Prior knowledge:
Two copies of one chain form a homodimer.
Chain A: E1 5-7, E2 17-22, E3 34-49, H1 57-66, E4 70-80, H2 86-106, E5 117-124, H3 131-144, H4 150-156, E6 165-173, E7 176-185, E8 198-203, H5 209-222, E9 227-228, E10 238-243, H6 257-279, E11 287-295, H7 298-310, H8 312-319, H9 325-334, E12 345-348, E13 351-355, E14 358-359, H10 364-372, E15 375-381, E16 387-394, H11 398-406
Parallel strand pairs in A: 4-5, 8-10, 9-16, 11-15
Antiparallel strand pairs in A: 1-6, 2-3, 3-4, 3-10, 6-7, 7-8, 11-16, 12-13, 12-15, 13-14
Helix pairs in contact in A: 1-2, 2-3, 5-6, 7-9
Amino acid sequence: MVKVKVISGGVTAPRGFKASGVSCGIKGSGRKDVALIFSEVPAIAAAVFTTNKMAAPPILISKKHVQEGVAQAVVINSGNANSCTGRRGITDAIEMAKITAGELRKKCLGKISPYQILLASTGIIGVPLPMDNLKRGIQNAVISLSYDAHLDAAEAIMTTDSFPKEMAIEFKIGNKTLTLGGMTKGAGMIAPNMATTLSVLTSDIRISHSCLKRALRKSVDKSFNMITVDGEMSTNDMVVILANGIAQNQEVVEDSKDALIFQEALDFLTQELAKMVVRDGEGATKFIEIIIRGGKSFGDAKTIAMTVANSNLVKTAFFGEDINWGRIIASIGHSGAEINPHDIDIYLSHHQIVKGSEGLPFNEGEIKEVLKDKEIRVTIDLNLGDSIATVWTTDLSYDYVKINAAYKT
Amino acid sequence: MVKVKVISGGVTAPRGFKASGVSCGIKGSGRKDVALIFSEVPAIAAAVFTTNKMAAPPILISKKHVQEGVAQAVVINSGNANSCTGRRGITDAIEMAKITAGELRKKCLGKISPYQILLASTGIIGVPLPMDNLKRGIQNAVISLSYDAHLDAAEAIMTTDSFPKEMAIEFKIGNKTLTLGGMTKGAGMIAPNMATTLSVLTSDIRISHSCLKRALRKSVDKSFNMITVDGEMSTNDMVVILANGIAQNQEVVEDSKDALIFQEALDFLTQELAKMVVRDGEGATKFIEIIIRGGKSFGDAKTIAMTVANSNLVKTAFFGEDINWGRIIASIGHSGAEINPHDIDIYLSHHQIVKGSEGLPFNEGEIKEVLKDKEIRVTIDLNLGDSIATVWTTDLSYDYVKINAAYKT
Lengths: 409, 409
């Protein structure tokens, strides 16, 4: 286990990173709506994007830009997703990168090309970006860049989030202390009419492009891809990492011991950020961890975990603080994954409630107490193999319906 | 189009069928909980079962019995699903068939073997069947069999249903008038801790076993498999049809003109019954029809229809009477099915609101009026091919959460 130390500073904790978060009026509320993260030197870049076939223009453009493998800034606006905006959406996204590169050049912050800008938009779907506002916002964001504005940036990417989500950690490779920072957004996997998770990670580590790419993909699969509030997927999801190498460590390359250390540190950070998204889930009153053990394969274990986690019946039962294992077992059965229907065990916290697919007698008072907790752990043993999958989710409350029904387009 | 006439009589409308519905105390409420449907002569039988891998013992036994191709009675209890009940569950299900056959023989109703009994249980999961009660119930049900107790039977299979669901129709093949009857249950695809759809269909038609089997499979794919309230699937779903041939028509065989007529009549009945289930959906305030046009394949069209129909975001938007097409289009994109992201049209009733994946201006007042209706139709044109799929669903309301959270095991 790698020793990881949580520190303050969010995305600007690693050396050489500046950030800013400003308001330009895209959000009617006047809240911050443009975030900029900037590395003083070109950084190795990797990203993972939504698989939604309706992927929005900023996603399409970022996908193209990140292929270069090097980036120097990430610009994000909230309040408008620039999604389902036709040809104009593409033009606007390209323009967003150009404006950012141009403003950074103007301030003599380097010979930055638009191809080194990654971008994201999150907010309402189907409305063109107000480019005049955005331009002013980006100009202001460039001027405001600072080594300690990480929280401003984290606030500027919020949509229905009730709190900004950021974290930074230190870890060691050899005798070098390295830093990883990150921020994310999302109130549930979804937010009314909006994009969902959008994360920016930063590091001062020196690492090869292929190693960074692979580590990010792996890490997202263990974190952001393991959370669900309602099984929805947005058109604007993106997780991006910039590694600027300022720490001057010996370059971390694939299949090395150092790569494993970095992977562990990255996994820690992405999992903590992902869990913050679940904790802020729309209307959530419970944070629920679902652990599948004994799966035939990781794929099977994850499918079952996700099916249970997305079951409205399971979610409403937890909201009602009722241990309705019949609903859990029905979900397991219809997930499509391989199971032995006669040999499923279910535990609530450390109390076994189902053994060999049959109910066990349990102490009602004890179970009631466990169900009252804000954090609940359900472990399901499939008794088939060695694979494990852990998914984090929420309950389904009146407030989820209220938040999503009351919102008007 | 085959001319179909709706008549009264439910499952006992076809000649030679008797039914009953009695109470034996499995339900604490004292409501009816044992239903029996009996054909005076052995009937050709076919059935479709849940694909849930946790399929309950009565499903496993019925699957075996229906392989004979002939059955004479269907016995159903509500209040207890006999699911996740281990070896004892299997023994009890076999016993349930034996008791029914024995009681029917005692009343001199024919030389009925237990293999000619199909059975189903619906209700709480994980609790053994109270066999003493059930035995009394079956005895009573046999005594109570009559040509007009169709409503008693329909009531006896209810769980959280708010009304009994039955229908009968007449149609002609040549100059013979044939009759089809049916009953179903389900308040949404799911009900608290319970099984979901469970349907018994009866007919006096003479039809070959292979033709009946194929017609039922096809019909279920166009009806019960096209409804969803919350995407859940129970351990106890079953649709069974008995055709006793008393109408003395020329035997209907596969790939004939008569088979097509029967198919149309059967589709009408199963779709009407399936829609009743949706109309009774837990907490539903709207009945929503989602039509996908222009799909590359039926599979793709259905996948998209189901993804939209099961989206909590789409469902809460309809509950809030808001036309949030961004949520619809995000669902379409993440369904996994093939689409052209730049060419999707969406209509609400006859108003087009999205063209080529971009929003159109619309008359807000008119749209508001449409959204106030109890019945809403959304048509999505994928502009890719000729395939069409229609799915029926409900909105997601406070009451769905309330019904499912307040229920205690």
